[in-house]
Amino acid sequence: MSQIANSIFSPELAARFDKLVTLYPLRRSALIPMLLYAQDEIGYISDAVVAEVAERIGIRENDVRSVLSYYSMLRTKPAGKYNIQVCTNISCMLRDGYGILEHCKNRLGIGHREVTPDGMFSLEEVECIGACCWAPAIQVNYDFYDELTPEKMDQILDDYKAGRTKETV
Amino acid sequence: MPRLVSHPDEVKIISRRFGQGAAEIEKYLELDGYKAVRTSIEKGPEWIITEMKASGLRGRGGAGFPTGLKWSFVPKQSDKPKYVLVNGDESEPGTCKDHLIFLHDPHAVIEGTMIAGLAIGAKMGFIYLRGEYRYLLTIMEKAVADAYAKGFLGKNIFGSGVDFDIVTQTGAGAYEVGEESALMESLEGKRGVPRIKPPFPAVVGLYGGATVINNAETIASVPHVLLMGPEAYAKVGSERNGGTRLFGISGHVERPGVYELPMGYSLRKAIYEVGGGIRGGKNLKAVVPGGSSTPVLLPEEIDVGLDFDQMGKAGTMLGSGGIVVLDETVCMVEFALRTISFYQHESCGWCIPCREGTDWLKKSITRLHAGGAVDKDIDNIRYLAENMMGRTFCPLGDAAAMPTLGFVKKFRKEFEDHLNGRGCPYKHVREQEEALV
Ligand SMILES: Cc1cc2nc3c(=O)[nH]c(=O)nc-3n(C[C@H](O)[C@H](O)[C@H](O)COP(=O)(O)O)c2cc1C
Ligand code: SF4
Ligand code: FES
Question: With an 8 Å Cβ cutoff, are A89 and B292 in contact?
């Protein structure tokens, strides 16, 4: 049983959170991982997530919101089921990262931080994702794809559309 | 999965186990895993620190601080628990080396963390990865769990009477969190705003306890240093720069990739031999030698050894080891703009010279690139950047100003070519090229 009655999270996640807060010398250290995992399950950081996370850690909701607004991966609105994050930072820029971004914009008919009407895809231009030597690189949710060309990009979008997603490594 | 590359000039010390399945603990053990930590337990903290000092290993996070010396600053006696914090935030554009370490040799990070802990008398270590590295966190978590299962972590490690725990976690997207004091704030569940120094982390760090913070590559090098012996390790590198380093070569080269080269290796050879030269037989225009914050080098300035001291003498920095190569088709104003846009986006906003400076630089260079600037704007850009230098709470302000100054100084003519409504001259060249295809 979770420490919180009527948790909004699945029993597995609630149990994980119960453990997470005990790992550190201070409970609050669990805050950022907790927000990320909550977002993975719920889709975004809703008011209910903020409230439960604050209660679990024992801090005010405002403290949670202040942290939430700092980190670029945390969002307060739903993204698409598959969030396409295209790096356009220097190493990717030199290898046509902007071309890949344009290509995604055209294919999906959406711009930066927008979601397709069916909720399937969202698009984001992001800063360096740590795959510079395999540029241009993107992430779809947490999965990396590198050395992209417009053709490879089409294949990836088709695969996701057809439900063929990549198991992480 | 990122491609592994190799070149005959490589000296594989840290990358020795890459591609061999060493993420599995049994394989790691087969490949000399967890030997260095056993020896460390036997010989004790003084021995570890003496060995580390003798190895000439310097921090791979960017600043190149000698690792043994850093560890020796931690007070022996302390009322509060001490900690080891591994910096795997890896967010400097051009840098992707720690990525490969977490992927191919996670146990080396664990073992290095344990050895650092033994050296300073810490019983707990944290391994912090950037939020985007979730799949690597999964690999690290499994490795940590396997090490616990073997009794290598937890109570009484290797029957030594010493306890050691490791917690792994990720951030959630923020470059500034790579700065060591902001990293501690983030690990304590706060916004990644840095702390005023002093006190330094070695005295007052995580949860108020003395803390050693090292880059993931630094930590992963530690077991290798002890395995091969500090003298042998030091000899591989150059003067006062021990060992090897994982250099990322990206941009316009034929064979981009992460290569392990001896410290002091020639930058020219790194580009033309290891990286295979400029893609498509084009000419070299510029090199950003150590991640996006390091000042740019011209083609005639690349006969320099890749170590902290030689790069300093050349007026730039070794930084994170991310070598970004630009060919003749690149518009340097556009490149400068992309660079400053990154720092503007990542400024934590605490101090004015950085928060406002990066913003004004971005605005000015945007206007200049579009052709809306006049002569004195170039000097204004320089003046703005000069006045950020050394005036900020943390080095992010400098990291934004330094490359900008380099671009303006070394490519002034190209900035001038954009003036008075002319806009980017390269845009037309590119459009012509595209029309031909
Ligand atoms: C803005 C900023 C970002 C940084 N990002 C990183 C990083 O991503 N990884 C890292 O190891 N060091 C980073 N550093 C350097 C750390 O503050 C620190 O010096 C380093 O982790 C110490 O480890 P080392 O001695 O092993 O190099 C950054 C510094 C600054 C100012
Ligand atoms: S220099 Fe920039 S990132 Fe560093 S504290 Fe100041 S505003 Fe924040
Ligand atoms: S610049 Fe795109 S991954 Fe680093």
Answer: yes
Q: Which helix (H) or strand (E) holds A12?
A: helix A11-20
The answer to whether residue A1 is domain-embedded is: no
Q: Which residue of B has its CA nearest to A137?
A: B2
Q: Ligand 3 centre and the CA of A126: distance in Å?
A: 9
Candidate from B1, B186, B335 with C-beta closest to A32 = B186
Structure tokens at B315: 């007026």
Domain boundary among A39, A70, A101: A70
Question: Are residue A144 and residue A88 in the same domain, yes or no?
Answer: yes
Is A59 inside any structural domain?
yes
How far is the C-alpha of B324 from the C-alpha of A132, rounded, in Å?
9
pTM: 0.96
**Is A157 close to ligand 3, i.e. is its CB under 6 Å away?**
no
**Are residues A95 and A46 located together in one domain of the fold?**
no
- Per-10-residue mean pLDDT, chain B, length 437: 94 98 98 98 97 98 97 95 98 98 98 98 98 98 98 93 96 97 98 95 97 98 98 97 98 98 98 98 97 98 98 97 97 98 97 97 96 94 97 97 98 95 82 65
Q: What is the CATH number of the domain that holds A65?
A: 1.10.10
Q: How many residues does chain A have?
A: 169
Q: Are residues A55 and A116 in the same domain?
A: no
Answer with the one of A70, A98, A121 that is the final residue of a domain.
A70
Question: How far lies A127's CA from each of B138, B283, B321, in Å?
Answer: 22, 27, 18
Domain range for A34: 11-70
Adjacency order of strands within the sheet including B211-215:
B165-170, B124-129, B83-88, B211-215
**A28 and A98 co-located in one domain:** no
CB B392 within 8 A of CB B179: no
What ipTM score was computed for the predicted complex, to two decimals?
Answer: 0.96
**Which residue of B7, B89, B190 to mutate against A (max A Cβ within 10 Å)?**
B190
Same-domain check for residues A56 and A34 = yes
